[in-house]
Amino acid sequence: MNLQYPIGEFQHPGKITAEHVNSWIDDIKNLPNRLQQLVGMLSEEQLDMAYRDGGWTVRQVVHHIADSHMNAYIRFKWALTEDQPVIKAYHEAKWAELPDSKLPIGVSISLISALHERWTYLLENLDEDNLKIIFIHPESGEVTLEENIGRYAWHGEHHFAHIQALCSRMGWL
């Protein structure tokens, strides 16, 4: 298993269908509960274990999901309210080292739950035209909202798999 990319890298399906989008929205909607079930019973020692050599701790991964998905939500709102905005990238590795990455994970689990409730409500109410809206990522270029839904569904599953694989290897499941 590739510990850095346990589910592989994001694969753009080519033509994105309504079925793709709906499935991805379901993944985003279900992540908070699945994540809570996975990490809710881990000890402080387990939360402070890295999922791989050179990787973040489980605690940092949970806080990173909150950070990343907050940024994603804002990017969607910018795209829906501005004309092809250039979004701001951020230094996720530096964010993972900030003092709030040491907080109890319940803080970010609560944040992810509330954020995903708002986010999925927004996503479920987009029409076909909205899904084709573009924002500009400073590194990736043009990104449609429908593609970004897929990228963030993948992102949640990617980090969920990091934690799940560690728990499995360590016999915590």
Instruction: Provide the residue-averaged pLDDT.
Output: 97
Distance between the termini: 18 Å
| Count of extended strands | 2
Helix content: 55-70%
Spatially, the strands of the biggest sheet line up as 1-2
The H/E string reads HHHHHHEEH
Helix tally? 7
Task: Explain this structure.
With 173 residues, this protein is mostly helical. It contains seven helices and two strands. The chain has helices spanning 18-39, 44-47, 58-81, 92-95, 105-124, 128-131, 145-170; strands spanning 134-137, 141-144. Strands 1-2 form a two-stranded antiparallel ribbon. A hairpin with a 3-residue loop joins strand 1 (134-137) and strand 2 (141-144). Helix 3 (58-81) packs parallel to helix 5 (105-124) and helix 3 runs antiparallel to helix 7 (145-170). The mean pLDDT is 97.
Features:
globular, 7 helices, mainly alpha
In short:
The chain is mainly alpha-helical. Helix content is 60%, strand content 5%.
How are the elements arranged and paired?
Elements: H1 18-39, H2 44-47, H3 58-81, H4 92-95, H5 105-124, H6 128-131, E1 134-137, E2 141-144, H7 145-170
Helix pairs in contact: 1-5, 1-7, 3-5, 3-7
